[in-house]
Design brief:
By secondary structure, the chain is α+β, with helices and mostly antiparallel strands. The protein is built from ten helices and nine strands. It has a single domain, classed as DD-peptidase/beta-lactamase superfamily (Beta-lactamase, 3-Layer(aba) Sandwich), CATH 3.40.710.10. β7 and β8 form a beta hairpin. α2 crosses α5, α4 crosses α5 and α4 crosses α9. The longest helix has 23 residues.
Amino acid sequence: MKKILILIGIVVVFLSFFSSKLIFNKSPKVSIAIIKNDKTYTINDKKRPMLSVFKYLVALKVLDDIDKKNISLDKKLTITKNRVDEKLYSPMLKKYKNYPFEISYKELLGLMISQSDNNACDILIEETGGIKEIEDYINKLGFSEIELSVNEKEMNEDIEKQYLNKAFALDIVKILKKGQQGEILSKNSTDYLNRILIETTTGENKLKAGLPKNAIIGHKTGSSSRKPNGIKIADNDTGFVIKPNGEIYYIAVFVEDSNLTDKQNADLIKLISKLTFKLSAFI
């Protein structure tokens, strides 16, 4: 078993670090974390910017509030123009073009997770008491190293702030596992969150692209802007994979400060996903 694990480590390290040099002649920073059968595996795990992966943490806090306050997911909020930033990526505003409009918690959560809507995210952050309230909640769940300090509007106004919401890849897969298995939220909230993760439409060329068609993935992606020098702050994907035989594993791949193209970043994550799936039978 030890030899197999060493082989996994060597091959994954090769893919994550050397493939970018040999194929693209460039080398981003890459962290990988995997959990299967309560065993953890990490490679080069350092605290890295999460970008939209942090929306999963926002969803946990919002749904925990809904559970504790006995709020219906169908409860509607009234959204006025001063609650949105029309410069942000926001599929919601393609549907709701006139103000004020009403939208349910359920739809906001779906937009934030499945489509990575930035305005939906900031509205939900505000509804739950602010980003520091969410950080405090996540820290109290046992994840004291996860840092949250800015919302989407702040990150889009100052690109350097995209570094501020950060975490170890292992912490993200650990909290994802707890959430997916129903250790944090009620059954109804757990089921809904797992469903909208599975319905994610962003980043289909990352982890999902490395899996066979009969595998199920629930995941949350993250993608930053590029700095003036062309460096992309982060390109991430994290999720749970349900294999055709019912086995589940959890994976996070964080790519930081990459001068690869978006396609090359995605191809790197895809390769790691494909390898992990093939070797997961031996873990």
